Every structure is written in C-alpha cells, then in structure tokens.
TrEMBL record:
One Pfam family it belongs to: UPF0227
Protein name: Esterase YqiA
Signal peptide: none
Lineage: Bacteria, Pseudomonadati, Pseudomonadota, Gammaproteobacteria, Alteromonadales
PANTHER family linked to this entry: ESTERASE YQIA, ESTERASE YQIA-RELATED
SUPFAM superfamilies in UniProt: alpha/beta-Hydrolases
InterPro entries cross-referenced by the UniProt entry: AB_hydrolase_fold, UPF0227/Esterase_YqiA
Length: 189
C-alpha cells in the first residue's frame, strides 16, 4: 500500500493538530494511501535511527515524507539520503543551534517521559545536517513569517531552490495548514 511518513516536531506527537488533520484528510480522500506517523524518540540519535528504519521498512511503497519543525529537518535528511519527496512545514534548519538552549533535564510535555538533552545530542543532529538539497524540485517548504520559534529567513534561504510558499503572519503551528492539504498530497503523488 502506498504510504506517506509524517514526522512531528520537538516535544510534539502524532496526536498534534497538523498530524491529525493530515491523517484524516488522507483517510477521507485517499483511502488507498496509509499515513505512518510515529511517536519520535526524545533523543536525536534514536529518532534518526527510527526514521531511517521506517523508510527502509516501507521504502518501495513510501511516496514521500511530511515534517513539521524538527520533523522538517529530519524530512530534509531523508530526502537527501533516500531521494524521497518531502514537504516541510516551518522547518528547523539548524536545530543543533536552536536546541542547545534547552540542554539539561527535560520532560516531554505529551508523553511525560523524562530525559536529559546533552551536547552529544546536538552533535547527532549536526551530523545529519544537509547544507543543500540534492533534488530541490522534490521538496516543498511551507513557511510563515510569524513563526515565533524559528527565524523564517533561515528556511527561506535554505529552501530557496525548492518550491517555497511564504505566508505573512501565522505562527509556528502554521495557521491554515488544512488549506494546503490538497496541494500537499498532489505534490507528493
């Protein structure tokens, strides 16, 4: 069965509003397509292994990946490694810089899991940094200027050779995401 991988952001889950909207849209309009939306591990090293294993497990049928924030970063990595189409939403471009402000003890706000974010985790994220897109025509970046978490200009610069939708206003959750669902699926299909 054709499938799409959906990757949530840092301290989020497959129960996030975007993940749910995406899954429901696919179920309603494309019942022949499945959505794989895992709860990503809290530490980058395990999350990276997790998404690679999912791609390799579903690879022949996997038609693309959609990722939000840190999930967008992982999606970009998977695009370059496996040649997958990717749609990234308010993507983190250099999360190893951003998340270094969060080093230390953490409690995942949704799973309640306790863990410690360490400098070695930042190295794990930096190890998979993709300074360019191998096939920019297979990537679509949806970005809102009102993103209060990430500097939207970094994404605009990083994804300038790909399809890029830049909207005024909005926020990190990407207000109006559901308006783009038909085009996102068309792009991936």
């Amino acid at each position: 069965m054709p499938s799409i991988l959906y990757l949530h952001g840092f301290h989020s889950s497959p129960m996030s509003e975007k993940a749910q909207l995406f899954s429901q849209y696919i179920k309603q309009h494309y019942p022949q397509v499945s959505v794989i939306a895992p709860q990503l591990a809290v530490t980058p090293d395990i999350a990276i292994n997790q998404v690679e294993a999912l791609v390799e497990q579903h690879y022949p049928e996997l038609i693309g990946v959609v990722g939000s924030s840190l999930g967008g970063y992982l999606s970009t990595y998977l695009h370059n490694k496996y040649g997958l189409k990717a749609v990234v939403i308010n993507p983190a471009v250099k999360p190893f810089e951003l998340l270094s402000d969060y080093l230390g003890p953490q409690i995942h706000p949704i799973t309640d899991q306790s863990y410690t974010l360490t400098p070695s985790h930042m190295c794990d994220l930096q190890r998979i940094y993709q300074p360019f897109l191998k096939q920019p025509e297979k990537v679509w970046c949806l970005q809102q200027e009102g993103d209060e978490v990430l500097d939207y200009r970094m994404a605009v610069e990083h994804y300038k050779e790909s399809k890029l939708t830049l909207e005024k206003g909005g926020d990190h959750s990407f207000i109006g995401f559901s308006n783009h669902l038909p085009q996102i699926v068309e792009f991936l299909l």
